[in-house]
Design a protein that fits this description.
218 residues, alpha/beta, 9 helices, globular
Length: 218
């Protein structure tokens, strides 16, 4: 109980060291994954990289995308992720499910200089699940960055029919590898998540985002 109380009270009075980046959106899932691989490799030279996925199917895809990179570690529990975050070390790329993010604040270890970079491979249909990641990352005593990665193929966006938008972007000369990054996109995604919540009958956990919409949207 004493340890639990200390963890809770340590959340208060701690200035967040989290830098939140604008969502990145790409035209295809393959382009999104290529960027995640490239940025995970580059950022791991200076930070502990944690690549998160909400759904097990996406986690497996991320694992395949990162295959061959040095330092990739597949985590299967909250305790494993907490252990990595307690002493972040550059050169390590962790892959984990988002629900494994620590529920209690991590204590500062003196002498640790490395930072943590969180790359989230998708947006969850309900905003509060994404907010849990942001809240947990914001309690870290280290310098952290957080970015969500999406594509027009992701079910959260595909629900609104994006083929016309894709065609328009191609006509405007946008390449598949080009990033769409704008606060307007973030707000549009937030509105979509609000609509999903209104129409959802629940939040049944599923293996894939497609299955989530099948079982949870009325």
């Amino acid at each position: 109980m004493q340890e639990l109380l200390m963890g809770i009270f340590s959340l208060f009075g701690r200035k967040s060291k989290l830098e939140t980046e604008i969502d990145g959106v790409w035209m295809t899932q393959s382009a999104k994954y290529a960027v995640i691989r490239s940025e995970a490799e580059a950022q791991s030279r200076e930070a502990l990289v944690v690549v998160l996925a909400h759904f097990e199917e996406i986690r497996r895809e991320v694992e395949q995308v990162l295959n061959g990179l040095p330092g990739v570690t597949i985590l299967t529990s909250e305790s494993q992720l907490t252990s990595q975050l307690a002493r972040p070390a550059a050169g390590v790329i962790c892959v984990a499910l988002a629900r494994m993010m620590p529920s209690l604040a991590i204590e500062l270890n003196e002498g640790v200089q490395d930072r943590v970079s969180f790359l989230v491979a998708e947006r969850y249909p309900l905003r509060e699940r994404d907010d849990v990641i942001k809240k947990s990352a914001g309690t870290m005593p280290w310098r952290c960055s957080l970015k969500f990665y999406m594509s027009l193929d992701d079910p959260v966006l595909a629900q609104f029919g994006v083929e016309q938008l894709r065609d328009l972007l191609v006509q405007l000369g946008m390449a598949e590898s080009d990033e769409i990054s704008n606060p307007t996109v973030d707000r549009a995604v937030a509105r979509a998540q609000k609509k999903f919540k209104k129409n959802a009958s629940g939040d049944l956990e599923t293996e894939s985002p497609e299955a989530w919409f099948e079982f949870n949207i009325r």
